[in-house]
Amino acid sequence: MLGMIGGLQYQARAAARAAGFTFVGIILVLIGSGFLSAALWMVIEVDYGAITATALIGGLYVLLAGLCFLFANIRPRVRVPVAPVAGVPSPSPSPFAAIAEGFAIGMQAGRAARTPKQ
Fold first, then answer.
1. What does the alpha-carbon distance between residue 47 and residue 50 come to, in Å, rounded to a whole number?
2. Which of 28, 33, 45, 78 could form a disulfide with 53 if both were Cys (CB 3.0 to 4.6 A apart)?
3. pTM to 2 decimals?
């Protein structure tokens, strides 16, 4: 029982640490995005003017937000487990396993064919 509690404490510490680093990372990304946006605005403003710079940067953020919403709605494909049928072997996870399984079945069939039946 004591080992289970220690394992839970370790998992809780690891989750808290990951959450803390994620939070700090998000804050740093936001600050960096602000500085990069200001620098991009200055570069565009020199050549095209303030209104164009503001419109381009705003459009860029709207486009990025749209991509984020699009990717958030993509659901991973979930494999539905198939109920096993009596007498039918379940499919092998890899082609090499299927080859090995077929070889083993063939070896058993060959041995069964060689032995005299009583």
1. 9
2. 45
3. 0.53
